[in-house]
Amino acid sequence: MPLLNLKNQALALISQTVSGQELAQLRIAFLGRKGQLNQVFKKLDKVNYGRQFNETKQAIESALTERQTQLTGTTAEWFDLTAPGQLPPLGHLHPISQAIAEIQRIFEHLGFTRVRYPEVDWDHYVFEALNMPADHPARDEWETIFIDAPAHPKLGQMVLTTHTSNGQVREMERVKKPPIRMLNLGKCYRRQQDPTHTIMFHQFEGLVVDKGISIPHLKGTLDYFGRQWFGPKIKSRIRPFHFQFTEPSFEVDMACVFCDQKGCRVCKNAGWLEMGGAGMVNQFVFESAGYVRNEWQGFAFGFGIDRLAMLKYHINDIRLLTGGDMRFLKQF
Ligand code: PHE
Fold first, then answer.
1. What is the CA radius of gyration of the chain?
2. Are 96 and 309 spatial neighbours (Cβ–Cβ below 8 Å)?
3. pTM for this model (two decimals)
4. Distance 244 CA to ligand 1 centre (A)
């Protein structure tokens, strides 16, 4: 009997549809003006089968509607156009990156400008121009990694920078006429490896050149940095030392942040921790940069960033900084 066949066929086809488009086609094919149901209707014995006809039509209609909600329902489950996009996991800012941003911010307040100079540089800028000729024993302190490449006739061999002091003469050559307030921040390399030393590490170099610059300016700058970095109560001191490129030279200590100067393992019972080197720019260095001797004064300092970060965040092994372990990094 045609009505029942039609209904079964329609319901079977409707249940197999996978898209709204297919469903719309079926609606036209069965319920449309020239659709199958109307074809049957024309020949139908309306007195006896009128009611069954209406039931068939309704059954097909509700099957279509039901399938429609099913299709849109399942669609929403896996693809909702209106849902906000998911942010890709971007990881975490490395403690060294955080330290660099903070150091830059502190020195910007004092009018320093951050610059970047090569991390693979000529011997000239790393040593010669800083009063360390090739045969000078002072070079021994910088366990230098040389690049196996042809030497420059005037500037010598290429080296991985052992300190950020190569920025001093480069900055003076660039500026030509002081004042200078430079913050050179970069990677350094030395042949060393233990819980507090890695082959690659970070330093920042401050350089101030002007007229009438003296040691109190240097001490004031270092104190300001110390208070900004470790907090307002931190004490710092400078101690006589020797560098070829500064005269006089100092080492800079800050009160041990672990024991409050009572003496502990970290500061080896000294109560002080060494932070870096500093001094008044040697007139030799001004001459290297083409300045006239005794026309300018200046001070310079160089600090290890990894060390500062370790002390501030209480990290006891420098190798954690390059381990890439998210469990460690996420704590900062
Ligand atoms: N370059 C020195 C070092 O790496 C630090 C320093 C910088 C000392 C500037 C004096 C002036 O140890």
1. 38
2. yes
3. 0.73
4. 10
Tell whether omega for the bond before 179 is within 30 degrees of 0, i.e. cis.
yes
Q: Of all protein residues, whose CA lies closest to atom 10 belonging to ligand 1? A: 278
d(CA 73, CA 292): 82
Closest CA to 308 of 107, 98, 67: 98
Atom of ligand 1 nearest to the CA of 276: 5
Ligand 1 centroid, distance to 323 Cα (angstroms): 27
* Unique residue bearing structure tokens 């092994």: 317
Which residues, judged by CB distance below 6 Å to any ligand atom, belong to the binding site of ligand 1? Answer: 163, 165, 205, 243, 246, 276-279, 300-302
Smallest CA separation from ligand 1 atom 9, residue? 301
For residues 227 and 206, is the Cβ–Cβ distance under 8 A?
Answer: no
C-alpha of residue 12 to centroid of ligand 1, in Å? 84
Burial class (CB in 10 A: 0-12, 13-18, 19+), 88: exposed
* Dist CA 24 CA 68 (whole Å): 9
Q: Can you give the pLDDT of all 332 residues of the chain as single tens digits?
A: 578 888 999 999 999 988 888 899 999 999 999 999 998 888 888 888 889 999 999 999 999 999 988 887 755 556 777 888 878 877 788 999 999 999 999 999 999 999 999 999 999 999 999 999 999 999 988 899 999 999 999 999 999 999 999 999 999 999 999 999 999 999 999 998 887 788 999 999 999 999 999 999 999 999 999 999 999 999 999 999 999 999 999 999 999 988 889 998 888 899 999 999 999 999 999 999 999 999 999 999 999 999 999 889 988 888 888 888 888 888 88
The residue whose C-alpha atom lies closest to atom 12 belonging to ligand 1 is 277
Out of 163, 169, 241, mutate this one to test ligand 1's pocket (max ligand atoms within 8 Å of CB): namely 163
Between the alpha carbon of residue 311 and those of residues 204, 258, 304, 318, the distances in Å are: 16, 8, 11, 10
Q: How far is the CA of 263 from the centre of ligand 1 (A)?
A: 26
Closest CA to 143 of 201, 214, 64, 229: 201
